[in-house]
Amino acid sequence: MKKIVIVGGGTAGWMSALIMAREWSRQGVSICLVESPEVGIIGVGEGSTPALKLFFDRLNIAEQEWMPACNATYKCGIRFDGWSTHAGFESYFHPFSAALDRQTLPMFMHNAQARLRGANVYAQPDRFFIASRLAQQCLAPVAPSISRLMCTMATILIPPCSGNFYARKRWPWVWCTSLAM
Known about the structure:
Blueprint: E1 3-7, H1 11-24, E2 30-35, E3 46-47, H2 51-58, H3 63-69, E4 73-75, E5 77-81, E6 91-95, H4 105-116, H5 130-136, E7 154-157, H6 161-168, E8 174-178
Parallel strand pairs: 1-2, 2-8
Antiparallel strand pairs: 3-7, 4-7, 5-6
Helix pairs in contact: 1-6
């Protein structure tokens, strides 16, 4: 395979093109991204997981560059409202881990196992993980890498960032073409 064509210049198209080109361009693989200026941006915010930071790190793009360009914010986890119809369990907050959570993880696991066996103990992560507490207070730390409290973060990207951010950069490994409809 010598050439890959990706149709669509949205977030998924650009992310696919960039990571493939980054990994395969040295092997002679050409990546072409085809997008249309006539196809508008959907206009919804895009949530991410902590893996997005790893993606940008792999492309050598610092947070200081992409976060402001995308009007991104940090988040400590994901809340699922309407998770259950059982009283007290209507929502579920899935926290992103932190080094400090190693201290509370055993108790959380103990309670979760006990609840599965029928014990009436609290087993939602909200009380056990620091990210839950931070999110409840609308906080999200950006700690130095040496911090013992380091939390794994994700971001929320505000449209029309994602595809536009990728398109505005000059990528040596991807060539683009515009396709009028």
